[in-house]
What we know:
Strand content: 15-25%
Largest sheet: 8 strands, mixed
Number of domains: 2
CATH architecture of the largest domain: Sandwich
Oligomer: single chain
Distance between the termini: 55 Å
CATH superfamily of the largest domain: B-lactam Antibiotic, Isopenicillin N Synthase, Chain
GO molecular function: dioxygenase activity; metal ion binding
Organism: Chenopodium quinoa (Quinoa)
Protein name: Fe2OG dioxygenase domain-containing protein
Number of helices: 12
Family: Belongs to the iron/ascorbate-dependent oxidoreductase family.
Structural class: alpha+beta
Strand order of the largest sheet: 1-2-10-7-12-5-4-3
CATH topology of the largest domain: Jelly Rolls
Keywords: Iron, Metal-binding, Oxidoreductase
Number of strands: 12
Amino acid sequence: MDAQNVISSETRSSYDRIYEIKAFDEGKLGVKGLIDAGIQKIPSMFVRPLEDRVKDFDTCSENISVPIINFADLGEKNDRIAEISKEIIMASNEWGFFQVINHGIPNELLEKMIKRTQMFHEQDAESKKKFYTRDFHSKSVYFTSNHDLYKSKAASWKDILYINARNTDGEIDHEELPPVCKDVILEYIDRILMLGDRILMIISFGLGLEPDCLGNMAKGTKSWAIANNYYPACPQPGLTLGTAAHVDTSFITILLQDNIGGLQVLHDNKWVNIEPVTGGLIVNFGSILQMITNDIIKGACHRVIAKSVGPRISIAFFFSGVMTSEKIHGPIKELISKEKTPIYRKFSIEEVMKNLFSNSLDVVGANLDYFKIHHMGDDK
C-alpha cells in the first residue's frame, strides 16, 4: 500500500489504528512519503491523545539552556581535566545534558554528515525502500520510521537510517552502508568514537575512578549505534511530536543537530529548548550510566517537537555497551558506601536493550524502576 492509502484511512467511520499503521508500514516510505503524497493534515496514527497534550508540561520562556563546555586546550593536563570533569558532573546533576565545543571534530565533517543524511532520506523512493525493515535484529543497517510503531500511543513524526553495531562487536560491513553517505559515515564514526572515549575518561576521572573504567564498561569501539534522523516539516505540529519524551538507553549519547532545532530537555517541570550552537555537539547521559553510578550521574528526559519548517536533521550516536556480552553490571563498587547503598540491581546490557525494544519509547525512561532493588523485593 502507498502513502495515499494511509491518508484515505482517516475517512473511515471508525478509526482503525492497526489498519492505518500497517498501510504506513507496508508503504516503506516513512513520514517523508506522506509529505510527498501531498497531505494537508497528519494521519490519526500520529495524533497524540488529547489527555497527553492537555497534561503536557509548558515550554520554558526564559532564556536559559544547557551548559556549554569548552574542550579547548584539554590535552593531558590533569588540572584542565579536573576542571572540565567538575563542569560535566555539575551539568549531569542539573540538566543531564551539556553541549561541547572545540571537541576536535572539524565543522566541515559535521556539515557533510548532516548533508549526506539528508541526501539519503531525499533520494528516490526505490533506492530507499531497499533499506526498509522492521526486523531490527537481522540487519546492521536499515531504514525505518518509529522503532515502537506498533506499541506507542502515537507515532512520532520522523524517519531513521539506523546503523547498529551492538551485536557485531563494533564491526559493520561497509558494503551495507548506503552509497550516498558511506564515506562520510565511516569518517564520522572514527572521530566520534575518539570523542566518546575522551568524555567517558573525563567522567571517570571526576568520579574518582580509574581513567579507563567507564570506557571499558561502555566498550565504545565494540558497541555503538547511530540514528540518522529526518524530521519533515509537519502540517499540524501541535498535534504530534518528532520524538516522544524518553531517557536514552545508553552510557552516553552524542548528538549532532542542524540549525533548525526542536530538541527539548525537561528541567524543573518545564521543557527547555536546546538551541543549536555552531560547531557544537550535544552530550546527554543515559540510563545505563545512571544505574552504574548509583544515581550520581543522571539521565534526563528529552523529546523533539514537530515543526512547520524543515526538514530537521540530527545524528545521534549511542554508546551502549556490548549487548552479546555475558558481563553483568551493577552500581560500581567504588561508588557504594554505608551511606550510599545500591539503588539498582545487577543487569546485563542485553536485558536493558530487550527492555528498550519491547516497550514504547515513552515507557523506557520510566522503566528505571524495573531495575531498582525494591522492585525485586530485595532489601539487601
